[in-house]
User: Fold these one by one.
Assistant:
Number 1:
Amino acid sequence: MSVTRRSLLAAGGIAFTGALGALFTGRAGAARAMRGYGPLLPDPRGLLDLPAGFSYRVLSRAGDQLRSGEGPVPANCDGMAAFAAGDGGGEGGVRLVRNHENRTTAALRVPAVPGLTYDPAALGGCTVLELDGAGRVTAERVALAGTAVNCAGGRTPWNTWLSCEETEDRAGTSGYTRDHGFVFEVDPADPHRSGAVPLTAMGRFAHEAVAVDPERGVVYETEDAFVQPFGLFYRFLPRRPLGGPGSLRAGGTLEALRVPGVPDLSAVDEIGARLPARWVPVPDPGAASVPIRLQDFGPGGITHAQKLEGCYWGDGGVHFVSSYARGSEGSAADHHGQVWFYDPRSGLLRLDVLFGPATDVRLPGDSPDNICLAPDGGLMVCEDGGGAQYVFGVTRGGEVYPVARNAEDIGAAGAPEWGEFAGVTFSPDGRTLYVNAYTPGTTFAVTGPWH
């Protein structure tokens, strides 16, 4: 990562040129200074740099003891969502459900709890934090265990969490006793009610994130594949749409996106471009012998994209991210990331944001990952790149501005080795932003003059 580029960000006045477009408007972005909430101020504690008027609390850290007594807080904090708890909602009662992207080498596994464990040999899963009206953690417990590489996911309209395994490992691989690569439903209020049941009809692949259409019940899914053949963008048509907790176990139909004439989404670089979306049935959702992205989708093939990541419902459609594209790795183009919007009413796919090209180090943002809708209707974007990491905001007018930065002092002796940001989400009342530092696993609550 270029220090020159980072110095622009640190200065607070983020000037850039190139192909970063105006979110939601389809107009090309012009060079401008990004203001947002102002420059980020160095944190005396060396944890999280924020704009003036903002503050944070550390809610949970990997290695501390879970309040349930089940064991240490697991490592690799990733996707997350906030749910209202009790009568108050907002900070008057919040449940945070949090993924742990643990592989077989993880130092701090999700403790295997009876009734919540899918495969005792797998170290990933979810934990739930409960906050009271003052934002204090009152409970912290395991909600799902024995799953692998739980990356992101998404919330359902009936207030459960869909946790996604970003792996395709089979039983017998890495010591696993069961196949992996599935989605699991987690009930934050009562994890034992949801248990540890794989939603096999939703496909077996390297899942990243999901978003549920609250009117039609369709579930959209991203596949995080960074080597060829790259991943696909899916939709799942449930047999029991909007059927409530457990309804997705009834199965349904899995389809993959085909954009006619576009085998690789990275080739599209025109902000506001609208492309016709077609949906093709997946031949074998369980990938019994062939990974889905390698299967035969018939004449016209299927549309791939490198590293499909965050996925979030808002504005009547689904926003999803292609984290980056590298021509040297087989993509049709080079960029630092794209944000797409699919409108199910029109059946059109639209390119809203392009971070890039990858050769231009003057641009803010590198490898966008988890996303969520902000209270102002724009997006919050977690960065997963090199060096210091950022949470960016993107307004409806196309302005990109820094919201938070891990306080790694690049090049300083003894500086903490922070990982990416992940799991950005807002409290139900929009007053608190929650976000994880992937490593060392830390969950923050950020308050301030959000608007």
Number 2:
Amino acid sequence: MTGTARPDFDPELRAGLAVVGGMFPPTITPDLIAFMRVSYASAPPEQVLAGRAIERADHVLSGHAGGEVVVSVLRPAGVTTPRPGVLYAHSGGLMFGDRFSGLDLVLDWVERLGVVLVTVEYRLAPEHPEPYPREDCYAALEWLASRAGDLGVRLDRLLVAGASAGGGIAAGLALAARDRGGPRLVGQVLDYPMLDDRLHTASTHQFDGVGVWDRVSNETGWDALLGTARGGDGVSPYAVPARALDLSDLPPAFVDVGAAEIFRDEAIAYADRLWQAGGDAELHVWGGAFHACDIFAPHTSVGRAMIGARNGWVEKVLAD
């Protein structure tokens, strides 16, 4: 830990950091990837969905370079009319996690808002570096749009969403869909998104060895995805959305981030650039919040407020 001045954690959240540290150590180095794949693995799908009025169907589709990618389609039980659709990319620093990681936060969209949610088992770095994760997700987005009739999804109500690494993937999907003439999106939910491989912001250096997902962890994740290209020229903006030169004509964005985490400054900058390009963004910066505190501490005042604000925005954007 350095002596750099930084915002303090919310007292209620600070109390939970000791518990979180057993699953998610502050600093993740390459030798911890295998541990994280076990520690951060989700519970069995049946347990994740237990007690919820949600129907699940798994599908195998063709991802990047023809490889197999599994998606789970989650829909409100007993609903047969076409519903809004959401393509979801999970968290895990691009190196770990699975399609049910952190999914509790968005299952209310299925039950309460009647959304059909497609969550993607994209392939992970470093075994599958750029462009595998984001192109697997883009293939899933195109699959969702092409199968909208069979899946009971409204093509005029498609949204992409993701948390942390998944938030960066969601931002890249919105850019790619615009540039490739892909599915038309009505929104993008970017929860504390991982957007910039260059690690040059003040907040990146304020959180070193403390909290959840520090500077070294971020280097580990981007190195796994990009290798020696990290920080250099020629990196695709679909992989690193902060590098995109043009943020015009993108769907409305919900961007939220903690004030006490490394992604604070790049998330704020991305929202600001969306506004500068004439776009629509709703930005929330949560005082005292560490990275992904709504996943690790959803019972806290800050966690509840984050979830409520996000759900309200999604309901507004997907409304007729």
Number 3:
Amino acid sequence: MTALKERIAGLIRTLGPISVAEYFSLCLSDPAHGYYMTRDPFGRDGDFTTAPEISQIFGELIGVWLATAWRALGRPDHPIVAEIGPGRGTLAKDIFRTLAKLEPGLCDAARFNLVETSPKLVAVQERTLEGAGSRFGWVRGVEHLPDGPLLIVGNELFDAIPTRQYVRAGGAWRERMIGLDMADRLEFVAGAGSLDPSLLPPGAGAAGDGTIFEAAPARTALMHIVAERIAENGGAGLFIDYGHLSPGLGDTLQAVRKHRPEDVLENPGEADLTSHVDFSALAETARVAGLDAHLTTQGAFLLALGLLERAGALGANAGEAERDEIRAAVERLAGPDQMGDLFKVLAILPRGVSVRPFGHE
């Protein structure tokens, strides 16, 4: 039993079952034993690989999009270029390099910031950004970013923000909790908390017992903060994650360890814990704040920005083995049976601003 599992079991014995959201938060962010607080989980030697680690092209194209957005916004002075949930800093490094080459005026004028809560990962990011690190500042929350127009990116961010779950039981929706069975093992149980039916997607009334619905108010709250900031000070936001474009039902809570799925209750604090993102809810939050919100798939987004052309340029002077790696990376990033369709893209912009590949609503 992991140290965090023992602590969670003790909490349940003392206070009773805890919500999925509380379990989610403890697993990832517990100061002493939380997954992101104690390790570098990224890459081949970690538990999972994110798009920036697959190919430099991903970060380069994000940099292209940010430069295009800055131009479309009228080249505002002293913008804040920020990444929230920056992992190892690989994406930030590729964005910085791309902006320095493609749009040096933006790169020189911008203040670069990373939003990170894990001291362990801040140290990793500092090493990754060695050489450019003097241009970067670190803050623990969006609310601590400097004032000014905000160009912000989040890749695989929202999936790691806790979600609540509700289970259909006896004709009602009850909050799904985590308790202890007779053998003192963690188990899912139906709690007493109920769900406002207005939050359910269409057709949910016909769902049978055992059906799961996920709601993520913490994700909505973060999007609200970002959207309000952009609505007030100008800027643009780009968020990429795996999830769905319209609301639905189903249990998407999952744990990954050493690149393999495992039981979400087995090793809290030792495995990555995520759930799929409801992009429609995030987009609606941005629209309520007065912004335009655009949705597409990662594959369509990257291809429209020149993924194949950039891959061809990189492969032109490469050996056969390297060209094979580039082709494999392109397929993984944009293939419909890989990340291309599973991962979605949300762009938020001031009303009427058009940034390729998104047009006006």
Number 4:
Amino acid sequence: MIDINATLIAQILNFLILVGILRAFAYKPVVRMLKARQDRIQESLNKADADVAEADKLLAEYKAKLAEANAKAETIVMNAEKRASEEREEKRAEMKREIEQMRKAAQAEIAREREHAVEQMRAEMITLSMAAAGKIIAKNIDKSENEALVAEFVDKLNKDKIGDLPC
């Protein structure tokens, strides 16, 4: 059993004094230090949460800016392709116009050359006809009959036509 004597009472009293002194000088400062540490840790956690929220906000902003930049780039590419297509079509139309003008000019030149050739041929035929007719009937026909014969020959040439052009 427990023997209650003065030593036990002195030990209990010493223990209580020690607890009071430790509480006054050690426990309260340790509790304050732990409370301050807990506050610093909580503050760091709050700051980390705020940093994460800020990072998420910045990430969302960067993603939005990236999407906007991609959309702008796509628009620029589409506009460039459209302009290139329009320029290609414009060049093609201009080339067609030039070809058509060249074709019309060539057709007009061909028509002029053909007319010129027909005129030359007519003049040559008249000259040859006149020479031949002159030799054949030089003695028998007078000048008025000769002109009538030439006129009849030219009328016959105009009537028969050479190709699709009149003589």
